[in-house]
Write a structure and sequence with these properties.
The structure holds two protein chains of two kinds.
Chain A: E1 3-14, E2 17-28, E3 32-36, H1 43-51, E4 57-63, E5 66-67, E6 78-81, H2 93-103, H3 108-121, H4 137-149, E7 155-159, H5 167-184, E8 187-192, H6 195-201, E9 204-209, E10 212-217, H7 219-224, H8 229-234, E11 239-242, H9 243-248, E12 258-261, E13 266-269, E14 288-300, E15 304-311, E16 316-322, E17 333-339, E18 344-345
Parallel strand pairs in A: 3-8, 3-9, 6-7, 7-8
Antiparallel strand pairs in A: 1-2, 1-4, 4-5, 9-10, 11-12, 12-18, 13-17, 14-15, 14-17, 15-16
Chain B: H1 3-30, H2 47-53, H3 56-89, H4 94-107, H5 110-121, H6 128-139, H7 141-152, H8 157-166, H9 171-182, H10 184-200, H11 203-208, H12 216-226, H13 228-254
Classes of the chains: A alpha+beta, B mainly alpha.
Chain lengths: ~350, ~260
């Protein structure tokens, strides 16, 4: 699939501070790509550069093969949804949605038809005559979506659109955004600092930190094969262990590298008393290794339980289990089982 | 009503009474034929009103003041409004510097200011009225800025401006179509305060223009020495005019503004 958007060697600086450093990436047509990263990583800065709202940039931005680097925002055919919704408070919902079409001087009949269609799609028809101040946060965000989508932009940018909403509405709205994106075939870039949000709806994720792309790939790629220490720490709640420590636990790994073990890949060996598989775990050929230790603490996370497991040889492990299965008591001596292929080495430091 | 509330209402009523009493007395005096030793005037008349409105000096002074007030509003709208918008929306760091500017008109006494102005601009071959309008506009900056600053803090105007740009608007159209309707109330308050500053100015106008340009306040001062009743009429007209301007601006600002209804 071709890239709709290509960003080449993007550099952005403010007051002699380089915020974005030599960044290059592509966004595929018809996909939802997320920019994921902590605050200050440069996600919004790049998004604003793509929108044309950030003038002081170096590098090239191409949309459908055309260089749009120097074009003003109103000539890019890019839509944007802001974190604050940015609805126009003096206009009704219908007038907000119609705004862009009126700027384009579309015929009145066409405006009414397209606005009504978009309000139906976003389930805002009953509120078409309401003013923004009369709407809830979720409704405001749906109006903002409708207002941008009605123009059928080549690319739609969403700058942390769900961050001001409560948890339940966030989940509903993110699924709605994904549904609109797939039904209308819109190419979207979605900025978020919430990894669960990015993973739930994205075809492609760019993880950013310190003005650089740390890794680009599908949610599965990034979750299962984090490239470096930053991603391993940022995504999930991974166990990060060096080669020497892992060897002491019975894993045969490259001692020079750091390794990641996802906490849900451990299982408690409830049938075996602690230390019973001591001999097996040193066998280089064993597919599953058994690690003896003590359950230090357990935290209920709703559908899951997170344990701190102190191994006999020293390191503490994070272990996650579904809340449905039997689990050991805090203080009990048990073994945890780990498949050897669950240990993922980091490619970079 | 709680005791605290009773106290608050009582104090506010007392302050309102203190402020209103002289205005009320002036109003009564403007209708009085003679008011010396009685609680209320001995008899009532419209004579002073009739004399004043038929006096060409009154009309000239009123028109002169209206010119200064209106011109100050126009200049402030053209210069200050875009600057205040830029500072609030795109460069908030400038706000700290603006605060220094806001103190300036209060820090320099009027008489010192006007002496300096006469020294610097007094002999330039440019009509002094233009300088006067610019100076009065500058003096109205603190009030103008404060009226708009509060409004700009109330919503995400940067987001709204940028959103309008993303929806296809050019910068000026985005400002006119999106920002202006939503800061309307603040703009009208700022206009009213600037107009009042211009309309009511006395010290600078009198000294800088050397009495050549008689405004409402200068005429009022002249009349005060000649006829107390006529001066009361003038004071009543002065308040009446400002109230009228305020009502017009309030009506205009209320029109079409549905936000927050």
């Amino acid at each position: 699939m071709d890239d709709l958007l290509t960003v080449e060697q993007l550099n952005i600086g403010f007051n002699q501070t380089q915020v974005i450093k030599d960044m290059s990436f592509g966004v595929k047509k018809g996909q939802l790509t997320s920019f994921l990263g902590p605050s200050g990583s440069g996600k919004t800065t790049v998004l604003r550069a793509i929108a044309g709202l950030n003038k002081h940039i170096k590098g090239h931005i191409r949309l459908a093969g055309h260089d749009i680097t120097s074009l003003p925002p109103n000539q890019r055919n890019i839509g944007m949804i802001f974190q604050s919704y940015a609805l126009f408070p003096n206009l009704t919902v219908a007038d907000n949605v119609a705004y862009g079409l009126r700027v384009q001087r579309r015929p009145k009949a066409e405006i009414i038809k397209r606005v009504d269609h978009m309000l139906e799609l976003t389930d805002m028809m009953t509120k078409k005559d309401a003013y923004p101040d009369e709407l809830s946060g979720g409704q405001k965000q749906r109006v903002a979506l409708a207002r941008s989508m009605v123009l059928e932009p080549q690319l739609l940018l969403l700058d942390e659109p769900l961050s001001a909403l409560d948890a339940k509405i966030r989940v509903e709205l993110r699924n709605q955004i994904r549904r609109f994106q797939q039904e209308l075939g819109i190419t979207m870039i979605f900025v978020t600092h919430d990894q669960a949000e990015a993973m739930a709806i994205s075809d492609d994720i760019l993880i950013m930190n310190d003005g650089k792309i740390q890794q680009q790939g599908s949610a599965t790629d990034i979750y299962e094969r984090p490239r470096n220490m930053f991603i391993a720490k940022f995504i999930g709640n991974n166990n990060i262990l060096d080669g020497t420590t892992l060897r002491s636990l019975g894993c045969v790994v490259n001692e020079q590298r750091q390794h990641v073990i996802r906490p849900e890949l451990f299982t408690f060996d409830n049938g075996q008393p602690s230390g019973a598989t001591q001999d097996n775990r040193h066998s280089a050929n064993a597919e599953v290794i058994s690690i003896p230790g003590v359950v230090e603490s357990a935290s209920l996370l709703g559908d899951r339980l997170e344990f701190t497991f102190a191994t006999m040889s020293g390191p503490r492990l994070k272990v996650k289990q579904l809340n449905t299965c039997e689990h050991p008591e805090v203080g009990s001596h048990v073994n945890v089982l780990l498949r050897r292929d669950a240990v993922t080495p980091l490619v970079e430091a | 009503m709680t005791t605290e509330r009773k106290w608050s209402v009582g104090i506010l009523t007392m302050i309102a009474g203190l402020l209103l009493l002289p205005i009320l007395a002036t109003l009564v005096y403007s209708f009085a034929t003679n008011w010396v030793k009685t609680i209320l005037p001995a008899s009532w008349t419209l004579k002073w009103y009739g004399q004043l409105v038929t006096n060409s000096d009154f009309m000239t002074a009123t028109i002169n003041s209206l010119i200064v007030g209106a011109a100050a509003v126009v200049v402030a709208m053209v210069i200050f409004l875009p600057v205040i918008f830029y500072i609030n929306v795109f460069d908030e760091r400038l706000k700290a510097k603006v605060r220094y500017l806001m103190v300036m008109p209060y820090a320099v006494p009027g008489i010192v200011l006007v002496t300096g102005l006469v020294q610097i601009y007094g002999n330039l071959p440019i009509p002094k009225l233009i300088f006067l309008i610019l100076i009065i506009t500058a003096l109205s900056f603190p009030a103008f800025y404060q009226s708009l600053d509060n409004v700009f803090m109330s919503r995400d105007f940067r987001g709204m401006f940028e959103q309008a740009r993303m929806l296809g608007e050019r910068p000026v159209s985005a400002f006119v179509h999106v920002i202006l309707p939503n800061i309307k109330t603040g703009v009208f308050v700022a206009m009213l305060l600037t107009f009042t500053t211009g309309f009511s100015e006395y010290v600078i106008t009198n000294i800088f223009l050397n009495g050549d340009y008689e405004t409402f306040k200068i005429y009022m001062y002249r009349l005060m020495k000649a006829n107390g009743n006529a001066n009361s009429v003038l004071t009543v007209c002065y308040f009446g005019l400002l109230i009228l301007v305020a009502i017009i601006l309030m009506k205009l600002s209320g029109k079409d503004v549905k936000a927050g209804k």
